[in-house]
Design a protein that fits this description.
- With about 230 residues, the protein is an alpha+beta fold.
- About 35% of the residues lie in helices and about 25% in strands.
- Strands 1, 4, 5, 6, 9 and 10 form a six-stranded antiparallel β-sheet that branches. Strands 3-2-7-8 form a four-stranded antiparallel β-sheet, with no helix packed on it.
- A hairpin with a 2-residue loop joins β5 (about 160) and β6.
- α1 packs antiparallel against α2, α1 crosses α3 and α2 crosses α3.
- The longest helix has about 30 residues, at about 35-65.
Amino acid sequence: MKNSLQVAGGVVGAVTGFVATLLLLELASFGNRADPIASGMLALLVFAPCGAIGGLLLGTALARRLRGGENGDGLLRNSLNAFAVLITLCALGGTAYYVYAVTTATPWLNPNAPNPLLVFEVRLPPGAALPNSPRDIAAELQTDLNTMPGEIRPDLFRRDDDRPVIAGHVELAFRTAHRQLQIRIKGQPDRLYLIGLSAKAPHSRELGPWQANSDGSEIRYRARWPGQS
């Protein structure tokens, strides 16, 4: 780029002027202690940009002097070029930060709102017995991001012929397709059920079909979102 030294000098000067202005304001104890947010915004959005513009002009002029006063496009033109490069760099930096923030953000399923629920029923094998207390039954949702204890609903227990059916629900906190539900019943082997919901776990009004497990038990489930039945 023609006169690239002057443009680079302007960019470096702008950055230096921005940072130096903030440091000077800090050393001078600038601001209203009763309203530090407004003072900070004033320093960041008014004074620091003014310092950046001054630094840009000074940096361009110093770089021009280093070249022996050669006047390719002139001080003003090179200052504007430096400003354009600075804006481009800021835009690229902002875009890179946005991409980083999006790709590393916590994948909440329902941000800033209550979590949806995985509502489930487990039909035990024929002849299986339930413990005397619901406290001897535990459910835990396991994902690649977290584990979440479930709530057992003894008021929804019933029998299908000779098969006990237990019920409960557990919160779905994160957006992931890797979910499994572990059911522990005192005196019985632990049972693990794969949950075939998509990552977004859309709301469903009805429980899905029974899905067989290797131990002869079965599970069915649905996702219930807040405010929906």
